Amino acid sequence: MMKKYRYLLISIIGLLLALTVEAQEPFRREFSLGVGGGASLSNVGFVPRVDQTMLLGLHGGLTMRWITEKNLGLIIEVNYAQQGWQEELPLINPDSESSLRYHYARTINYVELPLLTHIYFGGKNVRFILNLGPKFGYAISETTCRRLKGQKPNGGANAQHDMPLENKFDWGICAGPGVEFRTPIGSFLLEGRYYFGLWNMYGNSKADYFSKSNMQTISVKMSYLFNFKKK
């Protein structure tokens, strides 16, 4: 019985010594540079409400990361991103009971600049991360897709189909968790993010059609970073 307690005591002392050695390891600042990309699902918070489904898009670009404090750093990205919305509407066709539907999609291509606080916890090889902060974007182009064009969709007015983007600038808040795998050749990160736009795509005065039209996006991203360690 005493041997069991002795082994347990030795194990606890060994674990405490290991944690003490790790805690005393000096913190080293780190600069990382790399690339990342992934897929996103987006829609627009229209008021008055528009029945829509989420639009699948792609995003990717450059990532720079500075870790200046233990468990804390800063991330700056320059990305290309596709965002927008799509609709599936029934057709008005009094001569037929066909189940054909009118499809409409608007894809807006942005250049984005996220400025994110980087929080991390974990060991030498695996870290759990949380990135959050503002994201700024500028629309460089937009495209629309219409199937069964020329036939009138049911459901009343669809003013947004013929309204060009009015505000090219966009900004809002994004945040999301992830995991980082650190290897001798660099870091591999997998993360998810949610973006809530605080700016409207269209004018929101009393004379405008929409009082609210902000972008909302859910995305998944995979990144590779090469780490440059500093003292």
Keywords:
231 residues; mainly beta; Porin; 8-stranded antiparallel beta barrel; 10% helix; elongated
Could you please describe the fold and organization of this structure?
- This protein has 1 helix and 8 strands; from the N terminus they run αββββββββ.
- With 231 residues, the chain is mainly beta.
- It has a single domain, classed as Porin.
- A hairpin with a 7-residue loop joins strand 1 and strand 2.
- About 4% of the residues have low confidence.
Summarize the structure.
By secondary structure, this protein is mainly β.
Helix content: under 10%
SSE ordering: HEEEEEEEE
Spatial extent as radius of gyration:
25 Å
Strand content: over 45%
- State the CATH class: Mainly Beta
CATH topology name? Porin
